[in-house]
Amino acid sequence: MLSSSSATVKNLPLKRRLCFLLKLVCFVSSVLIFCEFLIYYVVIFQCRWPDVKGGTHRSEKETSASVLKAIILADTHLLGEIKGHWLDKLRREWQMERSFQTALWLLQPDIVFILGDVFDEGKWSSPQAWADDVRRFQKMFKYPVSTELVVVVGNHDIGFHYEMTTYKVKRFEKVFNFTSGKLITRKGINFVLVNSVAMEGDGCAVCRTTEAKLVALSHKLNCSQQKPNHSNKGCSDVEKLPASEPILLQHYPLYRKSDAECTGEDSAPPEEKNIPFKEKYDVLSQEASQKLLWWFQPRLILSGHTHSACEVLHAGKVPEISVPSFSWRNRNNPSFIMGSITPTDFSLQKCFLPFESRVFIIYCAAGALLVILVLAHVQLLTPPFYFAQRLISKHKAV
């Protein structure tokens, strides 16, 4: 039977074989283009900017002028030269680059925040490896002049507290224009960027500098807001800021016992939710958390680090959103946060990226279909298929 089938294949007209080969190439190309390019547009196109409360009562011109459109993502973990396999790097970086560039093109945000752990090996990378990682990041996360990129430091960028050095902190600050305690104001909205790795509270050099900057920012913000419980003494020479309660942006979450109360499809897996968090490692210490809440009395806290989503209410009134990882290496369903923010209000919406498991299923289904088409074309179907084909043809003949 094999010899007769081989003869059949050889006797197929050249034109027919070329036509079939062209169809196969078109089929394979279509699957690749969809799974590696178009799928990001299909998925992210479904995301919409959330409406701010009361926004319907304003004119469209006022709304667009006063609302800041922000994208918040975390934990990209660009692989380094030590632990990163070249194929893993290629795959993960392509996925994140396509997702980020597609989101910028479709959503056109005013600003993008990345909440730390930009790199996976920044805590121990050599100057040459660091320069290579930075180059790849700038290629993947390039952005137009109409969009601003703000990056917060994470423990994988400069090391945990016991690995953190002034050199590593300065290296990160030089690339990303970040300081260990920084205030940025956009459209009347105050954002405080915190180096949460330096909130150890042990009086280390970087820790002292960070806390001093945060205390100074707290004083400036309190003077600007004229808090009833804040003395006006010493406010006369302070630069006035918009009287808007700040939003804290940091890598470590504030203290919480675990993720047991977290819900949602991108929260921690059930087997991990009840594992107690370690202070100064998984979350900030209780003391550091209370300091930040007392200093800034924020209206919102955005953090990363855990790679899973969570919503927590501190002191019964301050919401904290833990943003999941943006990398498919850490999650099957990465996502980012879309925020419509005004000086007095905010509204957040999650935008999921393509599920990697679904992309894998598409590839498997396409591969199986491809094999069946090839076997059917050269008449090398397995006996069950061949027998069924004969029965169908006989039935039609009758």
Describe this structure as you would to a colleague.
The strands form 2 sheets. The chain has a 6-stranded mixed β-sheet with strand order 4-5-6-7-9-8. The protein has a 5-stranded mixed β-sheet with strand order 3-2-1-10-11. It has 398 residues and is α/β, with parallel strands linked by helices. It has one domain: Metallo-dependent phosphatases (Purple Acid Phosphatase, chain A, domain 2, 4-Layer Sandwich). The mean pLDDT is 88. Helix 2 runs antiparallel to helix 11 (356-377). Helices cover 43% and strands 15% of the residues. The protein has 12 helices and 11 strands. The radius of gyration is 27 Å and the shape is elongated.
Order of helices and strands: HHHEHEHEHHEEHEHHEEEEEHH
Q: N-to-C terminal Cα separation, in Å?
A: 27 Å
- The top-level CATH class is Alpha Beta
Total number of domains? 1
Any idea what the CATH superfamily is called?
Answer: Metallo-dependent phosphatases
CATH-defined topology: Purple Acid Phosphatase, chain A, domain 2
- Give the CA-based shape: elongated
| Total DSSP E strands | 11
| Number of DSSP helical runs | 12
The CATH architecture can be named as 4-Layer Sandwich
Instruction: Give the spatial strand order of the biggest sheet.
Output: 4-5-6-7-9-8
Low-pLDDT segments, ≥5 res: none
Radius of gyration: 27 Å
Work out the strand percent. 5-15%
DSSP helix fraction: 40-55%
